[in-house]
User: What shape does this take?
Amino acid sequence: MTATADSSFTFPRSYHFPPFFTPQPTIATRDAQLAKWSSLIVSYCRHHRLWRLSVIEAIDTSLFYNATLKKRLKLDDAREVLDWMTRKEGGERAEWVGKEGGKAVCWVYWRRPEEWAGILSDWADETGQKNTVLTLYELTEGETTISQGGWSPIVDSYCGADVEGDFHGMDPDILQKSLNVLVKRGKAQVFGSEDQQGVKLF
Assistant: This one.
């Protein structure tokens, strides 16, 4: 892996070869290409802590445009990659925002809501926050979640890298999805109005 103009992020080797930006003609090579693009998008969003990705805005960033090669993934091709990421074969690592088509913005799940649910539950257990009423703001913006004091890195099963399980600053919609998973598991109760919601983790 080598660095590019985005000096804070290290891109994979495939990013530096022109064919990476052109859909491959055979099924086997195309599937491998989609998997590589998916891994890149997930890693990039995780590194920059991007919860949502606007395809139109991202198409001009280093994620989809290699300035050195002067190669860009076309808008329709980027949407195809993200579409693949929403399906089971793509690990369900993305979800389009809104049900009425358009495919303009998507959530990118460097951790799926089910995975965040487990992390939230473990955090509550390790920090003595179980059976304590917390506001959603406290969960994502409170001082107790800034560093999650003393947490060991968690191995990311998708990208094969050690990353912190830090949910501080989480997108509120993804937080809701994650808490809904815990509610269904009988491990959380969410109550209150939309802008004043609280949660108790069991």
Summary: The first strand starts at residue 2 and ends at 3. The CA atoms of residues 122 and 128 lie 10 Å apart.
